[in-house]
Amino acid sequence: MPQLNPSPWFTIMLLTWLSLSLLIQPKLLSFVSTNTPLNKTMTTKPTPWTWPWT
C-alpha cells in the first residue's frame, strides 16, 4: 500500500508547512486591521437567571 510509505508525503508536508509559515504568514500579518476594538466598560450588572426548579 503506497499511502503507508511516509517518505514522499513527509517532504511534501514539510515543504508546504515551511512555505506557508515563511512566505504567506508575514504577508498576512502585515495587514492592518481597519476595525479596531474599543475598550468598553459594562455599566449594568446582569441579572441572574431564575431557574424554576430551585
Written overview of the protein:
- This protein is mostly helical and 54 residues long.
- The protein is 44% helix and 0% strand.
- It is built from 1 helix and no strands.
- It is elongated.
- It starts with 5 loop residues before the first helix and ends in a 25-residue tail after the last helix.
- The model has no long low-confidence stretch (mean pLDDT 79).
Number-wise, the strands total 0
**CA-atom Rg in angstroms:** 25 Å
**Span from first to last CA?**
61 Å
Average pLDDT, rounded to a whole number, is 79
Share of residues in strands: under 5%
User: Helix fraction?
Assistant: 40-55%
The major pleated sheet works out as: none
> Number of helix segments?
1
Taken in chain order, the helices and strands follow as H
- Name the shape in a single word: elongated
Query: Which runs of at least 5 residues are low in confidence (pLDDT < 50)?
Result: none
Label the structural class: mainly alpha
Question: What labels describe this entry?
Answer:
54 residues; mainly alpha; 1 helix; 0% strand
What is the compact description of this entry?
With 54 residues, the chain is mainly alpha-helical. It contains 1 helix and no strands.
Write the layout of secondary structure elements.
Layout: H1 6-29
